Amino acid sequence: MKGILLVNLGSPDSPEPKDVKKYLGEFLMDERVIDIPFLARTALVKGIILKTRPKQSAAAYKKIWWDEGSPLIVLSERLQNKIQKQVEEPVALAMRYGSMTIKKGLQELVDKGVKEVLLFPLYPQFAMATTETILVLAEDIRKVHFPDLKIESVPAFYNKPDYIEVLSNAIENHLKGIDYEHLLFSYHGVPERHIRKSDVTKSHCKIDGSCCTTASKAHEFCYRHQCYEVTRLVAEKLKFKEGTYSTSFQSRLGFDPWLLPYTDRTIERLGKQGVKNMAIVTPAFVSDCLETLEEIAMEGQEIFHEMGGKDFTTVPCLNDDDEFVNLLSKWISEWAKATVKVS
Ligand SMILES: C=CC1=C(C)c2cc3[nH]c(cc4nc(cc5[nH]c(cc1n2)c(C)c5CCC(=O)O)C(CCC(=O)O)=C4C)c(C)c3C=C
Ligand SMILES: [Fe+2]
Ligand SMILES: [Fe+2]
């Protein structure tokens, strides 16, 4: 029997500093998130970041926490439940960090008699800190705990025409009747070093003005290219005029150079330039979460208002949007019907 494991990032068990600290400790000690040698990472994470960040992050989580729990988890569960209604195979949900582990998710499927799993990272773009870390951990767990299980994974779907159509429709529907001068596509940032590390050609990604628009094998794993491509394809589909939209990167942490331009600076600049009404969409996130509900919808809006801006509209993530559910269910059903091809 076949089964599906959807995997998202994860959240702390509660917005209390002790749970946030535990969650951040696991997240930031991942060598694909803070990619420096173990001893240096331990000193940075345990000796510096975990001394102050949990309190700060807990305060932010408290502002967005729902009665049912973390928005990211609740929205991922709604997505799972809606997909389960459309596909015959069992659909489980796991998180890369936190209590809903990948091991538990695989165990749940195995207990139902599943022998072949479709591992579905809920990220439209590939990144070492998201997709890759899920694939590597799932394989490690498989080898140790489920050696007979077959696992195949869904690659980044950033440029699939049907995904671009669903995303474009969601943006268009949400912004219908709203007067905005500029639409900002804000993606989660990563350190520039991550882009170079994921470059399979070892020479293409220069993070300059041209590498991401020059065809290359590197793009299969280039987060920056994939983000710019989503913006380009949506803009093409919705016939946006040049200059009315742009791309930026949010949520930087630490002192390394991260992908530019930064979202907060871009919002600031738009406000200073006299833009009064702006909208923002966050296509690196499938589910609304701390980074969209607090950093963008609250902090971003505050920056815009401070710079003289007026209306700040945030487009929700795809979450459990019906068209998105139909699309993921279609992909899953196609995989389930296909003859066995396992990685
Ligand atoms: C070195 C640090 C980080 C990298 C690299 C990184 C990449 C990355 N993250 C997401 C998605 C999410 N990140 C979220 C929260 C979050 N991210 C970092 C750090 C890095 N992320 C931190 C420290 C936090 C915690 C919150 C905070 O203290 O600011 C979330 C939200 C989780 C939630 O519970 O709501 C998401 C989602 C992507 C897509 C990505 C690389 C492409
Ligand atoms: Fe993050
Ligand atoms: Fe590039």
UniProtKB/TrEMBL annotation:
Keywords: Cytoplasm, Heme biosynthesis, Iron, Lyase, Metal-binding, Porphyrin biosynthesis. It comes from the Bacteria. Pathway: Porphyrin-containing compound metabolism; protoheme biosynthesis; protoheme from protoporphyrin-IX: step 1/1. The keyword Coiled coil does not apply. Its EC number is 4.98.1.1. Fe(2+) binds at H188, E291. Its main location: cytoplasm. InterPro entries: Ferrochelatase (IPR001015), Ferrochelatase_C (IPR033644), Ferrochelatase_N (IPR033659). Gene3D superfamilies: 3.40.50.1400. It catalyses: heme b + 2 H(+) = protoporphyrin IX + Fe(2+); Fe-coproporphyrin III + 2 H(+) = coproporphyrin III + Fe(2+). It is found in: Cytoplasm. Catalyzes the ferrous insertion into protoporphyrin IX. Belongs to the ferrochelatase family. This is Ferrochelatase.
